[in-house]
Amino acid sequence: MMEVPENHDKPAGRKIQFPVVRFFAEIRDPDKEPLLHLGAGGPGASMGLEPENASDWLWVNYAGMTVENGRDLIVIDPRGTGMARPKLACDEFIKDANLAFTRNLSTDEESRVFTYSMERCYTRLSATADLAHYNSATVARDVEALRQALGIPKLNLYGVSYASRYALTIARDFPESVRALVLNSAVFPEIIYTQQLPEDVIAAYQRGLDYCSQDAACKKQYPDLKRRLEALVEELDEAPLTVETGNIHPGERYPFLLTGQRLLRVLFQALYDERFYKELPAIIEELESDQAEQLKPAIASFMGLVLDPNFGDAAGISHFCYEEAPFVDFDKARLSASNSGILGGSVRSDISMMQLQCRIWAIPSAPVLESRAVKTPLPTLVMHGALDPVLAARDADRARKKLPNHQWLLFPQLAHDVISASECAEQAAARFLDDPQQPVTEVAASCRKEELARMAELEKKIADMEREPTQEPANGAAAKPDGESARGAGEVEKQRSHTLPAGNRYSEAH
């Protein structure tokens, strides 16, 4: 645990702690500076650094660019999140949401419930923590203190989702402490994401629907998906569907009440993972028959975020209210949301909720510097997925051009967190870290083309095996189901695991 002042300007004041895990390289290369992973984003998402969790996924997604390549990997939960102390999580919200999502509440009723949750949360946490000191600039000072404590001259910085804003802030405030940056699904401070939230959310749903319409066979099998989804939202708001699932509370059946607005929230979170895009048409069709079997994994994932006890949502609200909300024109955002149609229903309540959060938190606003582009000359690799639902690729493409020394990798068929989805992305990051001046774009594109070809071949092989008729053995005994063979084939491809979507559990905001 790294101990730092809660307020760096008052070093003799209250102390806080955040966890630091260091994975040492198998054969360390003294010329390779460590890579610091700046957390799971959110802001407020937990890295899952508990010993029983960390090694399971860290080795899968980051070993190739670090410990297997002579470079130490250092991972933190930023202040207020995960294993940090204090952990600024709104337990009140978890308890209220656990009950609320089993009830048929209108959007206004749900908003009142969660407003009451936040008021109680603020009252409790503000008694022992100064919520004004949980933001990107303060995290940057924490990281600089950590670097000094470890005695490391320069760090390579890795930021995924909102943690990429930490990387940019550190590069701005402590440029001499940084060697290079890897930004995965990046958040840029000059983009006021809340301002454009309505149009971004609608565009995300449209990308999900277009994924099918761009394939002739899928379009023929599932025509007119947007109209059908809009009709489902309206029907479920009128007559919600109870979906019982056992994957939310172990050993218990959880009666999730699926309204139209909750369907939109569940689908939006599911779209963080590109694998969901192929499932969406069949889910819409099944819901039209008042069935939701195929939607259950997405509901479980959504509720996993909502009920995550390690999610530092109070710290996340502090970030938002300090460094983004002051630069949002909420009247324009509400006007945009009011014109966003049926699929923008949940966004309309989110805009008001986000502004209300900041009235409850009542913390000072950031200086205008926090809304300006970071034009660091440090070598930077910017990687993004074209299907990213929460951070539009067009925004990243525009913002990255302000970085004078960067390389850009866009993955057309990936969504949020490309390194967790593609070995080619990790290999590109590893090559970049070895030599930040070496171009990696062409090699990554070639690698990705081969990766997609392998995946297509594997999917075809699995489909062919599933179509084969079951052969009866000569002695009449039943044959093994084709699923056994399909699962074996699936294990040929190395499985990479997406981390839990790093989102705001109150809304569709990053």
From TrEMBL:
Residue ranges occupied by any AB hydrolase-1 domain in the UniProt entry: 68-195
Statement: the UniProt record of this protein carries the keyword Hydrolase = yes
Stored Gene3D superfamilies:
alpha/beta hydrolase
Q: Which InterPro entries match?
A: AB_hydrolase_1, AB_hydrolase_fold, AB_hydrolase_sf, Pept_S33_TAP-like_C
GO molecular function terms here? hydrolase activity
Q: So where does this one cross the membrane?
A: none
UniProt keyword terms in alphabetical order: Hydrolase
Query: Where is the stretch described as Disordered?
Result: 458-510
Please list the residue ranges that the record marks as compositionally biased, kind Basic and acidic residues: 458-470, 481-496
Positions of the Peptidase S33 tripeptidyl aminopeptidase-like C-terminal domain: 351-442
> Can you tell which superkingdom this protein's organism belongs to?
Bacteria
Name of a matching Pfam family: Abhydrolase_1
The protein, known as: Alpha/beta fold hydrolase
Species the sequence originates in: Microbulbifer salipaludis
